[in-house]
From TrEMBL:
It catalyses: 6 Fe(III)-[cytochrome c] + NH4(+) + 2 H2O = 6 Fe(II)-[cytochrome c] + nitrite + 8 H(+). Coiled coil: none annotated. GO terms for biological process: anaerobic electron transport chain. GO terms for cellular component: outer membrane-bounded periplasmic space. It is an enzyme of class 1 (oxidoreductase). The keyword Manganese does not apply. It comes from Wenzhouxiangella limi. This is nitrite reductase (cytochrome; ammonia-forming).
Amino acid sequence: MRKETWFVAVLVGAGLLLATMGALSSSPSNGEKSDFEGFDSLDEATVTENWKRYFPAQYEGWMRTSEMQETTYGGGGKAAAEDMDIEKINYLEMYPFLKVNYDGFPFSKGYYRSRGHYYALTDVVDTERLPDWEKRPATCIGCKTTDVSKLDAVHGDDWYSMPFSKVVGSNTIGCLDCHAAEDATVRHARDWLDEGMAHGTFANIEPEGRTDLVCAQCHTNYHFNAETRKVELPWTTGLTVEAQLEHYDAAQRSDEWVHPQTGALVAKIQHPEYELYHEGQEVNVHSMLGLQCTDCHMPKATDSDGEEYTEHHWTSPLTHVESTCMGCHSNWGSGGVIARAEGVQGRVYEKQNRIGRELAEFIEAVAEARSGETLDEVTLTRLQQIHREAQFYWDFIWVENSNGFHNWGEAHRVLDKAEALINEGMDVLDSV
Ligand code: HEC
Ligand code: HEC
Ligand code: HEC
Ligand code: HEC
């Protein structure tokens, strides 16, 4: 063997060894599924650590939701960190127009960019939105903890109307939210999703057999029932933004409030990832191809025994395009995929912020006109109606967490509608 060849062989050997060690440390064994014989009690199953010895690879992914990776438009934090004090991104400081648009509603008091599932409970415990735990509804933990299954079992729907202080525990989102305690099969733990689906208003998708319904437990728009305070999905008339506005128009909902500056009744939209991705009037190529949330956010991986498992680190897919996008987009190269995705996001991001500012200016202009003498009742009512609708359309896209990636055609359509309404309102103001 020539000296150089030997040298190369050693290098390759070392490389292989390192790669093996890397594989050992970064992807633990999937565990012996046969070891798992179910949990004896819900108490045991609500604690995610208890699943670790049966399913170490999935557990390890879940743990990594504590590591925030910032991308150009997404990711939950500014740096990787494992403690709870990781710097949070304060939306109210970053986008001052939000204080005007959400004036009179708790979101004007505290609003941060979402973080990983690891922080869900901490972030709702710490929120400045409703500091008094006796007045804050228990419903707020509905999307933040595995305790929901136990609360349902013990109290039925009665727990929703208890004070927050009575129900808050120490478990964040975990295995039990998506897997059954008896046999670990994929399931969803929130019956409000079944009630929402029972309206039968899905237009574009067939929910049967989909694994991504687990995400629809929490990544949808919702409001509370006015009496029971239980979560309700605003899907009685459909899932598109127009259908949901119709739903809100039919009765005043808990997430509506009278805006102090214009006197309009406006609604707060919450993270409609599921609706924007799968529904909408514009065709979304990725949903049409049959891709589910889980295909991009939970790609398949291989553990140290060479066994395939599902990645449980929910984060931005742009941090690992090789396993999520390249199967279809290899011709763009990984850099090209990210550049195109960010190109799509950049156009939506610019537009949603511009319209957010325009909405704030419109609100302030209406407030000024209202404080004068010249505005008659009919004109004011018309301006308030315009405010209600423009804010509904703008917020639907603003609070959706993908900056348009999940359905960019629909995002532009809905934002354009908001802007046309604001322009119409400004014309009305100019004419008085
Ligand atoms: C075709 C791939 C794809 C599918 C399918 C998909 N997403 Fe996404 N998702 C993305 C990309 C890309 C982003 C943008 C990430 C970024 O900005 O860094 C994103 C962003 C997000 C974010 C914000 C994450 C962050 O880092 O700020 C959430 C939450 C999310 N998606 C949830 C969902 C849910 C729920 C579904 C199913 C209804 C879904 N996604 C379906 C690709 C996908
Ligand atoms: C039990 C409710 C719940 C379920 C189920 C759930 N999520 Fe989340 N998700 C949340 C909450 C709450 C946050 C924000 C946590 C925070 O900001 O502290 C979040 C945050 C995220 C983020 C943002 C992470 C980041 O880095 O910014 C992604 C991505 C995400 N979820 C994807 C998914 C996907 C995909 C599914 C389905 C496989 C899913 N989630 C299921 C409640 C849920
Ligand atoms: C937000 C929902 C969600 C949470 C939380 C969740 N899983 Fe999963 N899990 C899934 C989905 C979806 C699949 C894939 C199902 C499929 O593709 O057939 C899956 C698959 C699995 C599988 C089957 C093997 C594999 O990897 O495909 C195991 C075992 C598993 N999860 C264990 C866990 C454990 C342990 C936890 C907690 C540390 C956990 N899961 C948390 C949604 C979740
Ligand atoms: C199942 C195959 C498939 C997967 C997986 C997939 N895509 Fe696509 N994607 C398509 C198809 C098909 C189109 C439409 C045709 C085209 O533009 O090439 C498309 C279009 C796009 C576009 C629009 C291109 C443009 O500039 O107009 C972007 C951006 C994109 N995909 C990004 C992604 C990202 C990011 C991921 C991973 C998170 C991903 N795709 C995963 C099939 C896929």
